[in-house]
Write a structure and sequence with these properties.
heterodimer, A: about 950 residues, alpha+beta, seven-stranded mixed sheet, 44 helices, 16 strands, B: mainly alpha
Chain lengths: ~950, ~200
């Protein structure tokens, strides 16, 4: 059909639809007289109208919104239940209405998400929790009839069925009548009170978990389930709505008790009264920030008819400090009831009773405060009276000549650990200040922050400092903040005997954090018998030269950044650094902090935009303070990642000019040279880093890896053995020695070292390399199993690719294809970020031919050879490619080059791909000079 | 040589706004690829959230690929238009491959697993729905020859999961126009598809 005619039809169709039935017929008749064909088309269109719409709605539903397979409706009949209809679904599972045929009553059946049933231990824990909750019997708690498992293994909970709707639905229609809101809150408080008496904390009080029956009765559902789902909920980011009800301690991932429920109830009450949530934000981190640091808009400001007394109850529930909050749901309930009665005509007596009770509570609180205050005063008096107490030097506490120091994360006093980030920030600042003293104090080195924080944990004990870093001294700190005062107790420990050598107390005011931080540095320096020239001191403490609020935020940011491996910490760091910049828009250290946060984000996500952001902020930092070494390091790293090696080097030199012992700078510098192919410089730079910190294992390890990359295995082993000597309980050294043996075709020794490594700690590297070993021994299924284990630690192309090869030779061709595809996808993504990443190219060259894309591999060969002609691994991969393509001559040529550049013969001799090639006499000639004397295996 | 896709996409959008139509064509593979990459990441998340929200997917890709500061309203619309096309292509590719695999045909270009990931691991279309989608694709091709605008509207509404208002904003039309055209297009497409499916 032509466009013009179609437009005509479209216009007539619209006109016809706008008409009533009679007029429409007249209109169509008129048209039909001139053009019967047109009439027919219009008739057909008008007739199909309804049907068509239904059709597309259904199709869209089926395609884009299909029922999930694991949550598909259960069988119509299940045990003694007859499943009737779906009532709703949420993060915690799908709920169906069902009839209990035995007792002839309706029930609500909740099927839990599949991951609950996935692993047996989780299932056990869940059943245990749910059974405890099912013992609760209260009019405001939804009755649980049964917890069971369907025939296909899915967990379900059979609950009482109530006619009604969730509080969430009610609130969606707008704020509730005040009396209604107070009534619901009181009922929730009663239910919670009972649960708390039984030692059960709900943990997920929110409107969606509150059923309101038709008669206005409130039923709390899902007791304790949140505990089981915690991990998944916070990880997925699917809970934007849920975070809003979490208490501050919950968002920090701390242990929560019943007072957390009190907070959540306060949030729900606030929302019932105003229709809005007290803590809001565009994303989860913003909400968490608001929960932690912002005061909500008073309810009375949003809804003037609400009495100030009611707002007081809400704000008492929303006290950020758990000690300041209502201590019990019952206390909250008493106040709500008092308010309800005050508005009711005959409530005098009750009001009186509650007021009295309230007064007592206040007095108790006051007394507690006074006592604490008195204690503090007494302590202060003591300290002031006898100044020498401030620094206790224990007998026999002469320090070792070499001070290898770990500053452990500061802990908070148990009752008031309200701000771990602040404590972390203080510790990190001290760590980096002390590290900058290293060049002037030959006997000192400090374990850098990034080494203290491991993948899932932090080295937090003196014993750990010895175990992982061979640090002989550790500084521990215990921080208390109370009523605007800060008190930090620093302890110097011998990491081998765990004896306290010295201790010191530093006190200050929150209002003057920079002064406090300066005092901390001074005290720590004295504790360690170090000298601190005045000029150096000025340099070190200049980060504090800003608006007081800005410095506080900055310290928190530093703290969050240290725990970057935990979910949400980088975002939190970004948020507070930006807050610092709001206080002081020219505050260079905050810009530098932002730059590092974005750099971390890039390392985490491999998402290129974050590199750009990191670079941008680092430049801004330098714009306001061109002496910030850390900003130069970040910028150098950014340039390196972008492939701008020249600029990277310039920046890192700038960093070292300002901070000559900056280990990050040296590492980046060495890696830059290595990435660039300037191996002599790289080697010298690694060695310089080692000379600076001769007892620090990381330097040896990096140099060992460098030798490994250059196929200088004997030298690598020497370095890695130093690592094992210095840090015998760290699995890394063993792995690396094992790897060298593996490459040198000594599988027995290699396996032995890997096994030793796994006894220290299960880890990626040992699994991966055992995979390589098995592959070489042509035990392909076992190799695949090891690679699969490795993948659980690292989901990345250089695991997928060898896994693909193992699958392939184990006969799992389809799985092999999939693994190769994964490898290619991931490696290509890496190349998009850094088009000069040689390792990614190498694995792509391996993978492409198996996906029917040898031409892509050939393209890459050119690119990669232009970048580096001497990488033996790359040359080996190229040789394999040509052999696969039937180009024996070229394959042999590249194998020769690979061998000349240090490739060990084992990877050729054991490769299943090169079987035919090995039979070629030309190969025999070629390899002869390189064949090592067979290594005798001692056992 | 060293340009991020962020910069590339933004540049292409600027070119498109300046009247360069081929820029939108160049944009397509980038958006297509990114939707895939996103799906891959989604796979690693917990599979508890079953609903496939195409709008959310597209929006996430937008946030990732486009520099928010340097983009104006019109370019934003261009982007979403292209994203809806990419969703269409991805879905049709999926159906074709599903069919090919059932018949034991050639190895697909993109694995079913990847496409499955995109849809939260739950996209198992019945044959009926697969056929319907292919018929829709063909009918939409014909519709595009008669009225490109209407086919764009269908792409936005059906494949992009956009509302009437979003579609109007993306295509620079009034909501009334979108409503009318969407209504007619559905009817016409339905008839075409009935013919194809009945045959």
């Amino acid at each position: 059909m032509e466009t013009a005619r179609w437009d005509h039809i479209a216009s007539l169709f619209e006109q016809a639809r706008a008409l009533g039935p009679n007029d429409r017929n007249a209109f169509l008749d008129q048209l039909g007289r001139d053009d019967p064909d047109l009439r027919r088309q219009l008739d057909a269109l008008l007739e199909a109208h309804e049907e068509a719409h239904g059709f597309f709605d259904n199709l869209a539903e089926a395609v884009f919104n299909p029922p999930p397979p694991d949550a598909s409706p259960p069988a119509q009949r299940m045990a003694h239940y007859e499943v009737l209809e779906k009532l709703g679904g949420g993060g915690m599972g799908v709920v169906y209405k069902a009839r209990d045929t035995r007792l002839d009553r309706f029930v609500a059946l909740k099927f839990l998400p599949p991951h609950f049933s996935a692993d047996e231990a989780a299932k056990e824990r869940f059943m245990h929790e749910a059974r405890a909750a099912s013992a609760l019997d209260h009019v405001n708690i939804c009755t649980i009839h049964e917890i069971g498992q369907s025939d296909d293994g899915r967990l379900f909970i059979a609950m009482a069925y109530y006619e009604g709707e969730t509080l969430k639905k009610k609130i969606e229609r707008g704020p509730l009548v005040v009396e209604e809101a107070v009534d619901y809150a009181a009922q929730m408080a009663r239910g919670l009170e009972r649960a708390h008496e039984q030692g059960i904390v709900h943990r997920d009080v929110k409107p969606a978990n509150v059923m309101v029956t038709r008669r206005g009765g409130v039923k709390l559902v899902d007791f304790g389930l949140a505990k089981m789902a915690d991990v998944q909920l916070t990880r997925t980011g699917t809970t934007l709505g849920t975070v809003a009800y979490m208490s501050p301690e919950q968002t920090r991932g701390e242990r929560v008790d019943h007072r957390s429920d009190v907070w959540s109830l306060g949030v729900v009450l606030y929302e019932m009264l105003t229709g809005e949530r007290p803590f809001k934000g565009d994303h989860e981190q913003a909400i968490i920030y608001s929960i932690l640091y912002e005061e909500p808009v008073p309810v009375t400001a949003l809804r003037p008819e609400v009495q100030s007394g009611l707002w007081h109850v809400v704000s008492m529930s929303l006290a950020k400090d758990v000690e300041q909050r209502y201590q019990k749901a019952a206390d909250l309930l008493a106040d709500l009831e008092a308010l309800a009665q005050r508005t009711a005509p005959a409530g005098g007596a009750a009001l009186h009773a509650t007021t009295q009770r309230r007064r007592q509570t206040v007095q108790r609180g006051l007394r507690r405060g006074l006592l604490a205050g008195a204690g503090l005063l007494a302590a202060l008096a003591l300290l002031l009276a006898i100044p020498s107490v401030r620094q206790a030097v224990l007998p026999g506490s002469a320090l070792p000549a070499q001070r290898h120091l770990a500053v452990l994360p500061f802990t908070g006093a148990a009752a008031n650990a309200d701000d771990q980030a602040f404590a972390d920030g203080l510790a990190e600042t001290l760590r980096s200040q002390l590290a900058r003293l290293e060049p002037s104090q030959a006997s000192l080195w400090v374990v850098p922050t990034q080494d203290m924080y491991k993948k899932d944990s932090v080295v937090a004990t003196a014993a750990g400092a010895w175990q992982f870093f061979a640090a002989n001294l550790a500084v521990a700190g215990r921080l208390e903040r109370q009523e605007g005062r800060i008190r930090l107790e620093l302890t110097l420990l011998d990491t081998q005997t765990l004896r306290t050598l010295r201790a010191v107390v530093v006190e200050g005011r929150e209002a003057d954090l920079p002064a406090f931080q300066r005092d901390v540095l001074d005290r720590a320096v004295a504790l360690l018998d170090l000298d601190l020239p005045l000029e150096t001191r000025r340099l070190l403490t200049q980060a504090g030269a800003t608006a007081p609020g800005a410095y506080d935020f900055y310290l928190r940011g530093r703290g969050y950044l240290q725990r970057y491996q935990q979910a949400g910490q980088i975002e939190a760091a970004i948020t507070v650094f930006q807050r610092a910049l709001q206080e002081d828009p020219t505050y260079a250290p905050a810009f530098a902090g932002l730059a590092q946060a974005y750099q971390r984000k890039y390392w985490d996500t491999n998402d290129r935009q974050w590199v750009d952001k990191a670079g941008q902020y680092a430049e801004q930092a330098l714009q306001y303070d061109d002496d910030l070494a850390e900003a130069y390091v970040t910028l150098g790293s950014v340039h390196r990642v972008r492939g701008g090696y020249g600029s990277a080097k310039v920046m890192l030199d700038e960093a070292l000019a300002r901070d000559p012992a900056n280990s990050d700078a040296y590492l980046e510098l060495a890696k830059t040279a290595e990435d660039q192919g300037d191996f002599d410089t790289a080697e010298a730079t690694y060695q310089r880093a080692i000379a600076l910190k001769p007892d620090y294992w990381v330097g040896y390890n990096d140099l060992g890896i460098f030798y490994h990359n250059r196929a200088r295995h004997q030298e690598a082993i020497e370095q890695f053995q130093r690592v094992v000597e210095l840090a015998p309980d760290n699995h890394l050294g063993y792995n690396n020695v094992g790897t060298q043996y593996s490459i040198m075709n000594r599988p027995a020794q290699a396996a032995e070292w890997y096994e030793r490594s796994l006894t220290v700690q299960p880890n990626y590297s040992a699994y991966r390399h055992l995979g390589i070993l098995y592959y070489r021994e042509h035990r392909f299924a076992e190799a695949a199993a090891m690679y699969e284990k490795a993948l659980t630690f690292r989901d990345i192309y250089y695991v997928w690719e060898p896994l693909a090869r193992a699958y392939y030779w184990a006969g799992a061709r389809q799985k092999a294809q999939q693994a190769w595809r994964r490898a290619v996808e991931d490696a290509e993504a890496q190349l998009a970020v850094n088009p000069r990443k040689i390792e990614a190219m190498q694995y792509l060259i391996d993978a492409y031919p198996h996906l029917g894309q040898p031409e892509k591999a050939l393209d890459l060969v050119e690119t990669v050879l232009a970048l580096d002609r001497k990488d033996p691994q790359v040359l080996d991969s190229i040789a394999r490619l040509y052999e696969l393509l039937g180009q024996r001559d070229l394959a042999l040529r590249y194998l020769q080059e690979a061998l000349e550049n240090g490739l060990t013969t084992v990877s050729i001799e054991r490769s299943p791909w090169l079987e035919a090639l090995r039979a070629d006499p030309r190969y025999q000639d070629l390899v002869r000079p390189y064949l090592e004397a067979p290594v005798e295996d001692a056992r | 040589m060293d340009r991020s896709s962020l910069g590339t996409v933004t540049r292409l959008l600027e070119a498109a706004r300046a009247g360069n139509r081929t820029a939108l064509n160049d944009l397509f593979p980038l958006v297509y690829k990114e939707l895939h990459a996103l799906a891959h990441r989604q796979r690693r998340r917990w599979q508890g959230n079953y609903t496939v929200n195409t709008t959310a997917l597209v929006h996430e890709v937008y946030l990732k690929l486009v520099d928010q500061h340097s983009i104006d309203w019109e370019s934003r619309a261009h982007f979403f238009g292209v994203a809806a096309q990419a969703m269409r292509q991805i879905l049709i590719d999926y159906v074709r491959q599903q069919r090919a695999q059932k018949r034991g045909g050639d190895a697909p270009k993109v694995s079913l697993d990847e496409l499955q990931d995109m849809f939260g691991g739950v996209l198992t279309l019945t044959d009926e729905h697969s056929e319907a989608l292919l018929a829709l694709d063909e009918a939409l091709e014909k519709l595009g020859q008669m009225s490109e605008r209407q086919s764009r509207i269908v792409e936005c509404r059906f494949f992009g999961g956009m509302t009437i208002e979003e579609t109007a904003a993306v295509l620079g039309l009034s909501t009334a126009t979108v409503k009318r055209s969407w209504s007619l297009a559905q009817v016409w497409l339905y008839q075409e598809m009935q013919k194809a499916l009945g045959a």
